[in-house]
Amino acid sequence: MASTDKPDHRESIKSEEALAAPPRRSNYFSVHVALRVLLFAASVTAVVVMVTAKQTEIVPVPVFPFRAPLEAKFSDSPAFIYFISALSVAGLYGILTTLVSIVLKPAHETRFLLHFALLDVLMLGIVASATGAAGGVAYIGLKGNSHVGWVKVCNVYDKFCQHVGSSIAVALFASVLLVLFTMLSVFSIYRKIPK
Amino acid sequence: MASTDKPDHRESIKSEEALAAPPRRSNYFSVHVALRVLLFAASVTAVVVMVTAKQTEIVPVPVFPFRAPLEAKFSDSPAFIYFISALSVAGLYGILTTLVSIVLKPAHETRFLLHFALLDVLMLGIVASATGAAGGVAYIGLKGNSHVGWVKVCNVYDKFCQHVGSSIAVALFASVLLVLFTMLSVFSIYRKIPK
């Protein structure tokens, strides 16, 4: 009898507490929202900087013995297109989750923390791989690769490379933010387990 | 009195047994261990396939009007070196966490799930970015980039490219495993919150 009584008693205490005081937001709430706004800002910055990375230089054309103006832009490389797609999705995700966090009722917080943690992990995978892909290609642009005869282009397209480099740095920051998010969500869920 | 005492006595013994029984492992435990062994296997496979990707072909040398044997190997590209480092760390992490999961006392499970989730997120970031970087470089090797005059090399070094491609595919699988891990850890922690 005692074993069945105890949970009932706890239940009644819990429901009384719930009726007496409305559930409060956890301490991490404001940090959560601030980080999500930062993710949105970082993603939008990375996308804008990458899209505006355009530079036209007069370079020797290999086919003719002439020099012609040639424009470097992000759409020249599939890796940069993937980068922009991924960071756009991350920016959208950042602003949507910020709004959801703000309008969220504190009573539903735990369940939403779970959903946020699961989605954050997915977004982290996408943003980290996009940053890696763009970084790998940008590094070849910066240093070239003498083994396969890929020439470096950053000595000619200096401004373009500065834009690309800055954009990748901001995306790296966004990836770190996503790691922090997920850790914070996991920790917030962990703290709700009674010790 | 004796007839009513007896059942009470039994009840109390039962509840004592329930209190004395050690905490059991969660249902997800075996899935956890299996996934971690898979991560180890996938990481080691990716590293071995990438390291053994060596091919020597006789190609025209740009400086002289001669043809010379030239070897393609993973260390020609910094992205592939980063890839191997990251996947080696992931393999080590996989085998270490498998061992820890097996020797772990069920009573400490929740705390270790938290630590695992936090570390899994970090590993996911590393493995996903390495896969992205290697994928970005391998794609240039496969298709070339006519905008900047980077020639494709996979028409000559076919076996090398097959190795690299397979290795990246296995690493992608390892990334997906890490996403699943983290989700499973988060969900296991969430389930321990009393409803």
TrEMBL record, chains A, B:
Membrane-traversing stretches: 33-53, 79-104, 116-142, 168-190
Subcellular localization: Cell membrane
Entry GO CC: plasma membrane
Membrane topology term: Multi-pass membrane protein
Pfam families named among the record's database cross-references: CASP_dom (PF04535)
Residue ranges that the Swiss-Prot or TrEMBL entry lists as coiled coil: none
Record-annotated Casparian strip membrane protein domain positions: 30-177
Subunit comment: Homodimer and heterodimers.
Name used for this protein in its record: CASP-like protein
Organism annotation: Populus tomentosa (Chinese white poplar)
Source organism phylogeny: Eukaryota, Viridiplantae, Streptophyta, Embryophyta, Tracheophyta
